[in-house]
Design goal:
The chain is an all-alpha fold and 81 residues long. 60% of the residues lie in helices and 0% in strands. Helix 2 packs across helix 5.
Length: 81
């Protein structure tokens, strides 16, 4: 049985650097093809990253993934203030 995915900030921090680059561009509204061109990847690689992102974030689509990514505090933010 799979353990539940972390939610919110912890889930976003669990993304690999490659996944983070993909979700950053997707969150800006780029298509898979545009994201692939920007990162020097194939469209298939972008789709692979997106599948992994959806699983890690526990979401079903790019809109939900983008929302979680955009609402998460930036890396290194002091959350104990």
């Amino acid at each position: 049985m799979l353990s539940p995915a972390p939610y919110g900030d912890a889930a976003v921090r669990s993304l690999s650097p490659g996944e983070t680059r993909v979700i950053e561009l997707i969150s800006r509204g780029l298509t898979n093809r545009q994201t692939a061109a920007e990162l020097g990847l194939t469209v298939h690689a972008v789709k692979f990253h997106l599948s992994s992102i959806y699983r890690k974030l526990g979401v079903a689509n790019r809109t939900e993934a983008s929302r979680l990514y955009l609402l998460a505090p930036p890396p290194g933010a002091n959350l104990e203030a």
